[in-house]
Amino acid sequence: MNLKNFKINLSNKNKGLIPQVLTVLFIILAVVYFTINAQNNMGNRGISFGFGFLSQESSFDIAFSLIDYDGSYSYARAFLVGLLNTILVSAIGIFFATILGVTVGISRLSQNYLISKTAEWYVEIFRNIPLILQIFFWYFAALRALPLTVDSINFYDISFLNVKGWYVPRFIWTNFSLFFYSIIAAIISIFFVSKYAKKQRDEFGKQIPTLYISLGILIGLPFLTFLLGGVTLSFKIPELTQLSKTIYVYQGGVTIIPELISLALALSMYTATFIAENVRAGILGVNKGQKEAAASIGLTKSQILKLVVMPQALRIIIPPTTNQYLNLTKNSSLAAAIAYPDIVLVFAGTALMQTGRAIEIISITMLTYLSLSLSISIFMNWYNKKMAIKEK
Amino acid sequence: MNINLIKPNKENLTNYVSIGGFLVLLGFIDFLANTFFNLNVTGFLPERLSYFMPIIFGTIGLYLIRIEFSGNRLLDKINTNFNSSNFNAILSLLVIFVLIKFVPPLLNWFIFDADFIGTKKEDCTSGGACWVFVKVWLNRFVYGMYPDAEQWRINAAFLILFFLVGASFFVPVKFKKYFLGFLLFIYPIIGLKLIGGGDFGLKYVETGAWGGLSLTFIVSAFALILCFPIGMFLALGRRSNLPAIKYSSIGFIELWRGVPLITVLFMSAVMFPMFLPDGTYVDKLIRVLIAITLFEAAYMAEVIRGGLQALPKGQYDAAKSLGMGYWRMHFLIILPQALKLVIPGIANTFLALVKDTPLIFVVGLLELAGMVNLAKTNPKWLGMAMEGYVFAGLVFWVICYAMSRYSQNLETKLSTER
């Protein structure tokens, strides 16, 4: 009997063991096989694996950079330029996609037939056209139809739009760091104010107008630095200058290149459709009884929206919307198609062509995106756990 | 609050409606005259005020006709749908005015001023869209660089596919299993052989020459068929009790979901050959298919996992109590129910897949969007980008919209059971 039991135990154990061992073995074999091949191939081409190339001089130029960069900087610096450009276009895209998405999402629920239909068609049209096609459309078709530099579209003589890009005034700051710190200080103090307000509300049932107070702090504190801290701001308006007989350029301002405009436009318009659907689902997801219950205990309309509907709607809206932000960031890699110098174009494109280090460069690029999305999904898991309805 | 505004009431319904209607009409006349005849009726007013006059007239007019329960059906309908408050009235007017302003020029460009007849760019003279471009290049847009004489093979492959799909509805239930198996596993190979050629007296056409819309369909169809089983096993793996399998599945799924498709395609183009023995050459299209399949399989796995999680635990217990093993339980009891639950998710994944196919331009394969890119740089057809992209966008839109509608239908059709 002992023997029989032993046999059954063994077979049960084996049942789980064999597939696991096979899986691990398969993975190890695949990795070993690929590594050996990669070593052979690299040996044949006379290159050795390593990340030393990152400190070498890159000797290529990048059309658009947020930090100082030219060919004499290293590959690591080029990577940073690309990463910053990716972050820039993602941030712009996220900002506009949120505004547009929330507007469209709320419009879809409007009683107004025209408004809700317009919003619905907006979603149906822009969601069902591939993003890359929208980027191509804006870049190769729409923005190419803009006038030449000489007869740019003029916005009140301070900003100019033409086929070469959008020229906006340059901000010239003195004591910018003080201004910057004041904004950070304002954000920190708003955090404490809202914490205090929440405590007051929870303990004494007192309502403190947090929104107005925080707006006041956010505007007032930086404004004070202008008055007291010696911070000044002046604008340098772009001016049309003639370089040669036929070549005109705007100088002095900041140039927003058409690649950035079209990419940001397409990304925000495409992602806005998904955000709009999330917003709609979130608002529809709040039970009607919740609103009625809130009204029956005498809350005003704005209180109902702020204290009852929004907290519950946001719980539904935020997780998928963060997912969309992540998608937007990943989709910004399509920049490579229109030569906006993002991380894929600069690093996985130009740098790879120059160095030929396919394995290192592609792994760095993928790891960058991977760490970005993993950190966001870890944050989301934490947030979901925190926000989950705690049943009593 | 008692503001002494004229409050429209039911007693003087006809008066209010006629005055209000007149004002709205006035606003529209002002706007129409402005847009179409360049005639500023309210030009005597200050510039800014004159500009907003149609809105002001319209808003006042709509305010006057906003009478609840007027008894007139049409009026009530207008009031509830377009005119429930001042804010809504202004919004409605704005939407109507914007539509009037922008739709006619767009239509003119699109149809009325467009050129359809001709064979070269110079035939486009009327100032609208030059659809001649699309007409001339249509063959390339659909078949890519595939040789003209061999195009019947692509047509035949797709026609047989449609025929087989159509026939599958009439096959007796007994043979349906085998028929579907043939359709899903044998026919793709036949189709590939038919299009690729090389044997049976068919001329070999290298995959670099494939392209256009047909390539879009080929890539999406193969990626869908292949990613589905992989995704299913990954989903099962992720929910497995065996740690080695569970964590390798999680790692695989999160790896692909964390990176953009374009880097995966880059990887398949430049990094993948480094991992193979020297001298091995894997066809470009196959590499792309592997990359897209693995990428979409990760997304499919998450969709299917959602379905698996939604099933009540009783289903598992019931299956186990009948003495079913792991595989029989999953294939006979769990998966059929789970997959039905996530049909919308599967459809969305497929939709995303179709929308992602243009990205294969990264490795030099040109499907529809890529062919438009190529055509617009042709020296004889410069400046045709708008027409090309509008056409490609329209084609993709029709495909995607039809698919999303179909999945919505499927969802409602199948949800009646519960």
Major sheet of chain A:
4 strands, antiparallel
Q: Assign the CATH architecture of the largest domain in chain B.
A: Orthogonal Bundle
Shape of chain B: extended
Indicate the structural class of chain B: mainly alpha
C-alpha Rg of chain B, in Å? 30 Å
What's the level 1 CATH class of the largest domain in chain B?
A: Mainly Alpha
Share of helical residues of chain B: over 70%
Order of helices and strands of chain A: HHHHEEEEHHEEEEHHHHH
Oligomer: heterodimer
Mean pLDDT across the residues of chain A is: 83
Folded structure, characterized:
- The complex is a heterodimer of chains A (392) and B (418).
- Chain A is globular.
- The N terminus of chain A is likely disordered.
- Chain A is built from 11 helices and 8 strands.
- Chain A has a 4-stranded antiparallel beta sheet. Chain A has a two-stranded antiparallel sheet with strand order 4-5.
- Chain A is α+β, with helices and mostly antiparallel strands and 392 residues long.
- Chain B has 418 residues and is an all-alpha fold.
- Chain B folds into 2 domains: 93 residues, no CATH class; 229 residues, MetI-like fold (Orthogonal Bundle).
- The longest helix of chain B has 30 residues.
- The radius of gyration of chain B is 30 Å and the shape is extended.
- Chains A and B meet through α1, α3, α4, α10 and α11 of A and α3, α4, α9, α10 and α14 of B.
